[in-house]
Amino acid sequence: MREGLCKGCKLGYGTGERDIGRAKCKIKVCCINKGYNSCADCPEYPTCPTINEFYGKKGYKYRKYKQALEFIRQHGYSEFLKIAGTWTHAYGTYRNE
Predict the structure, then answer these.
(1) Domain range annotation of the chain
(2) pTM greater than 0.90 (yes/no)
(3) pLDDT tens digit string along 41-86?
């Protein structure tokens, strides 16, 4: 994030360095196959069984991932990157938190 680019899970698939057919993450496969940057771009997001199953898992990080996508849907990627660029880990705090 420090250089303004996500170093996340999709790295290497667009160039063919990695094979999407071998990916195990249902969310990653869905987003890449549909051409979305993230689930935040998907019109089926609110009712998607894949993302809702992911959010149903126990753990703090799942709530934070949901919070990130909700923030992106409301404020856009640019605002998200501004905030996320200040974090030292995969997630952090937002305005009014």
Answers:
(1) 1-97
(2) no
(3) 999 999 999 999 999 999 888 898 899 999 999 999 999 989 988 8
